[in-house]
Amino acid sequence: MFGILEDIYRNAFPNIDLHVFWVKNIPQIVILVANIVIVIAFGASIVYLALSLINLITAPSSGDPKKTEQALHGVLYAAGGMLLSLLAYAIKNVLLNVFGITQPAS
Predict the structure, then answer these.
(1) What is the 3-state secondary structure (H, E, C) of the chain?
(2) Rg of the chain, C-alpha, whole Å
(3) Distance between CA 74 and CA 76 in Å, rounded?
(4) What is the pLDDT of residues 72-88, one digit of tens each?
């Protein structure tokens, strides 16, 4: 699947070998970037969930029902973001298995 990209890279930079880097080839770079993006999205969702929960706990004391509703929506969006991050990780793993690409060892 990534053979075309590797050929383009080898033609563009003939003096630089792909195996000089700590990753062996382009699929490993793609997997690494996807994992980093998924971890960042999941982490941001956790932080947003924590802030929304704090707002949800403190909102009733202000007496503003709109503020409570916004905090509840924030919690739901954060939970949705966490679920989407986990779904993206699962889809990535399914695609890797379908194409027979092995993940780099940690």
Answers:
(1) CCHHHHHHHHHHCCCCCHHHCCCCCHHHHHHHHHHHHHHHHHHHHHHHHHHHHHHHHHHHHHCCHHHHHHHHHHHHHHHHHHHHHHHHHHHHHHHHHHHCCCCCCC
(2) 21
(3) 5
(4) 999 999 999 999 999 99
pTM over the 0.85 mark: no
Length of the chain equals 106
Would you call 103 exposed, middle or buried from its count of C-beta atoms within 10 A (0-12, 13-18, 19+)?
Answer: middle
Closest CA to 56 of 38, 40, 79: 79
Nearest to 58 by CA among 72, 46, 45: 72
Residue 84 vs residue 63, higher pLDDT: 84
Do 12 and 38 touch, CB atoms closer than 8 A?
Answer: no
